[in-house]
Amino acid sequence: MDPVMAQTQVELFVNQLVTRAAEVLPNIIGAVLLLVAGLWFAGFAQRGALRLIQRTGKLEPTLETAFGNVVRYAIMVVVIVAVLSQLGIQTTSILAVLGAAGLAIGLALQGTLANVAAGLMLLWLRPFKLGDYIDADGVAGTVKRIGLFSTELHSWDGIFQFVPNSQLWNKRVTNFTRLPTRLLELKFGIAYEDDVRKAKQVLEQLIGEDARILGEPAPQVLAYELGDSAVVLAIRVWTKTADYWATRWALTEAGKLRLEEAGLSIPFPQRDIHIVGGAPPLDNRSAGRPPDARPAAGK
């Protein structure tokens, strides 16, 4: 090749390269600056979201970091798309592919995403928290862990329960330990011939001796109902939630003993049977013969 021609080709290539670099370099620099700024802003938004969550106290501490990461990655996706656009890459097709992939993943993980959505709602609305004893349509236990996908419950008899969040979110949840106080109601039956006023005095004295019973709302001893075989008296008192079961068991035992010591009986269910028209003789009934039957001769 002619040296002059070769030199001309090299100069032409260098000129085209410089021209192209002059056109592309600003875009590259802009993309790099945008990427650096996006990384900084993603970290700043993550820290801000964490501070906001910690201030509101709506989420459990174990999920605060996860929520901050979600905020950061969402911003990073936007930043990456902007960087590609700055470099002159068509992002329309990329966004279409991402949208289609997201739709496919969402359809494939419907149950999992439902649990995640339910977990976020449970953590935000907080119908229960760690340490609460709940019952959700037959699923009962003390809450030990609340996750994005499931909740861990321990029943009173030491049974581990792994419950998907969607089951808790779609059911009525009864929280037995959410409120600081609870109403305690006990019923005692006495015989109809016993003195009702005396029985009420015995139970009122018993209530006044237990320091776990709150003064407000005021305790009550009521003649609850006239049962089939007993006059039913009811104790209605308020106690701290933490003292509920201990107080219930103590009052049940002490109430029975106090009523017996006062000479009052606690009857068991019974019925009086009245036979109209008299009863056949015992020998005829035992033999299976009618009342007017007579033994045959020689028998």
The general outline is: rod-shaped
Q: Per CATH, which architecture of the largest domain?
A: Orthogonal Bundle
Task: Enumerate the spans where pLDDT stays under 50 for 5 or more consecutive residues.
Answer: none
Which structural category fits the helices and strands?
Answer: alpha+beta
Please, what is the average pLDDT? 79
CATH topology of the largest domain: Helix Hairpins
Give helix and strand order, one letter per element, not per position. Answer: HHHHEEEEHEEHEEHH
Assess the beta-strand content as a share of residues.
15-25%
| Largest sheet descriptor | 5 strands, antiparallel
How far apart are the first and last residues' alpha carbons, in Å? Answer: 149 Å
Tally of extended strands? 8
Tell me about this structure.
With 299 residues, the chain is an alpha+beta fold. The chain is built from eight helices and eight strands. Strand 7 and strand 8 form a beta hairpin. Helix 1 runs antiparallel to helix 2 and helix 6 packs across helix 7.
